[in-house]
Amino acid sequence: MTPANPGVQRIRAAFARAQAENRAAFIPYMTGGYPDPARFLAVCDQLLRRADLLEIGIPYSDPLGDGPTIQRAGEQALNAGTSTRGTLDLVRRVRQTTQTPIVVMTYVNPIYAVGPDAFMRLCVESGVDGLILPDLPPDQDLEIADLAAAHGLAVTFLIAPTSTPSRVELVAQACTGFLYAASVAGVTGARESAALGEVPAMLALARQHARTPVAVGFGVKDAATATAVAEVADGVVVGSAFIDAIEGGHDLAPLVDLISDGCRRA
């Protein structure tokens, strides 16, 4: 897991460009194949207008870390016929239109269903730069992370305000793309409050050990929450707010611009 990996280099460069412009990197998330495969590509086009990195989630039937909004999106995508291989094929089509780094969020079971080595090969062939692995403790199964590194992919693990100092140290040192810090314990989803609570202290601890940028997600829904996170983090991850907008029949472009502008620091 060295910075020489192509995915690592592209992800680090994206964060560096944002930092040079005095802003946090804007990292929108979208469930693969949502709301259906055809419209998914149009949604990605809207997100990529402003994205520094694009996170695409592989829909999964048992997404324990996802809140109700992303769960609904996953169910709809699965019902529309989206599979793990289908998601990666959609990523390949997105990659044909952009040089923006793409990271895939997946639980471990879909990787094993395809086969770890075959999954990594598909990721590389599709133009994926890195993986976000929310249910893989880096001290319990190194096969996935090692395979990702061998194929030139960055890996990202998660911490939360409930993570112990030893867990934060372990996870921070294992990340090669960026470190994903959840703003709250629990599942994903937009929340009413922009208060950061324990996030600054968590990030201060993480930065003592991290060799990568640190991005914060879970709860960012508008310019105010994006600005609050951008003041303390290197990246701002936003997902449920965009899915809520699609569910409500709204044009994504204004919300994308609003949240992206919110990532600028004072």
Q: Short description, anyone?
A:
With 266 residues, this protein is of the alpha/beta class. The chain is built from 12 helices and 9 strands.
Layout: helices, strands, pairs:
Elements lengths: L5 H15 L4 E7 L5 H12 L5 E4 L10 H12 L4 H12 L6 E4 L2 H7 L1 H11 L3 E3 L9 H9 L3 E3 L1 E2 L5 H10 L4 E4 L16 H9 L6 E4 L5 H8 L4 E4 L1 H8 L4 H11 L4
Parallel strand pairs: 1-2, 1-9, 2-3, 3-4, 4-5, 6-7, 7-8, 8-9
Helix pairs in contact: 4-6, 5-6, 8-9, 10-12
Query: What radius of gyration results from the CA coordinates?
Result: 17 Å
**SSE topology string:** HEHEHHEHHEHEEHEHEHEHH
Uncertain runs are 186-194
**Number of helices, where a helix is a run of at least 4 consecutive DSSP H or I residues:** 12
**Distance between the first and last residues' Cα:** 35 Å
CATH architecture label: Alpha-Beta Barrel
EC number: 4.2.1.20
Organism: Deinococcus taklimakanensis
Enzyme class: lyase
Protein name: Tryptophan synthase alpha chain
